[in-house]
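We give this protein:

***
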Amino acid sequence: MPGAVAFCGAFWHCSPMTSDQSICDLTATTLARAIAKGELSSRDAVEAHLARIALVDVQLAAFVTVDAEGARRAADICDAAAAPSGPLHGVPVAIKDLTDTAGLATTYGSVLFRDHVPFEDDLVVARLRRAGAIILGKTNTPEFGFGAVCTNKLRGPTRNPFDPALTSGGSSGGSAAAVAAGMVPVAHGTDFGGSVRTPASFCDVASIRPTPGRIPSPRRPLGWDMLASHGFLARGVDDLELALSVCAGADAQDPLSTGVVTDHRPLLGRSRIAVTPDFGVAPVSRDVRARFADACEALARVAEIVSSSPDCGGAIETFRTLRAAHIANSYGELLRTRRGELTPTVIWNIEAGAKLSAEDYLNAERRRTAIYRSFRELFARADFLIAPAASVFPWPNEISDVAAIDGADLETPIDYLAVTFIVSLVGCPVLTLPVRRGENQLPFGIQIIAPPGCESRLFAFGRAIENELGFSHRRPKLP
């Protein structure tokens, strides 16, 4: 076979394509192309990534479950096929353990579901498989996705590849760490208030939270709920676009998905961007503000910065109310019947919504509508809105919650997420990219926010600043 692959120590090398690179350094896009051309087998790609997991995940704890034999069988089927089955043919990926995978344990990060093996894939997983992707395993998450540190009673904490003493972020921290450490080129995540974006910022990778409904969730009990979204983490924009492309598309059982309008207009000329360090209301640390100011100075070289910002007054209280109501509705019965088996974080989250009234909920929806309209007014003057992707830098795993920022106490454990959950409120697609950093600086990312339906424009702008400003992933110093 052209480009034969040889094992050398801990790394797999494919010399015609990569010279001094490991297969595990390759993007999903490059891997898919090489496998389709016969320059690399899917089995070799799978074995390389399994070897990487064996080497580094003992330290990082990014995976809850690794399906080595299932991945090998799927790879052999790919290699025996007469033609590629789809755009991700033979490419290893990982799925966050909040999302069902047929025949593969799905614990939701909870001991209550330790032995749970679904009979059916969630639609996003089914679409990845149809595109030819190979599921290597399930990545770690806090119980039911509630927690600032990616840990639970089954596994964790998932450690940051750039400093294992620090958190990888919640709740897609397992996926972020797996991508950053080269265990998979692309990983699935979910994002309610920042659960894809915060780990991406902490682990120096890119992420996409698309327009709600872009990736359908046909089994979601609240069909019109747009706070939660599937998303992806990768080391570059091309892989995010590829992963989204194979999972997007309406499903009749998801009412949000049937109403998503795609804007395919190309970017013309110099983009106009509005910038905000905090949306006027979010608590953000001084150090993050300084790094964000440096990023904006760089962005001014490739885009026109316009003076404009949405009115986000009341956004923090609005999100608290809506989130609490959704969680109490979804998990209240577990609190009544299995309280002793739940983590304190989950208990707090459920109890926060127990006393809300219908009037509380509808008043929050009224304020949310006003904030959304303010965002739409901004996008009449700017192509994109830029904000930090996290309000703080990664902290030690031993600290379960962010209780204060720069010495100022936060009212609730979720307030440090305000810089991301404000975007969740209004349903805008958001791309995050790591910014350039000095040798001793911790990872940090920015959010690039666009009007609903404008993912293609987000990817085009993201590629431009990846290439022109070097806002891209840097590999951690791991074995």
Summary: The longest strand covers residues 134-139. Residues 106 and 249 are 25 Å apart (CA to CA). The longest helix spans residues 315-338. The radius of gyration is 21 Å.
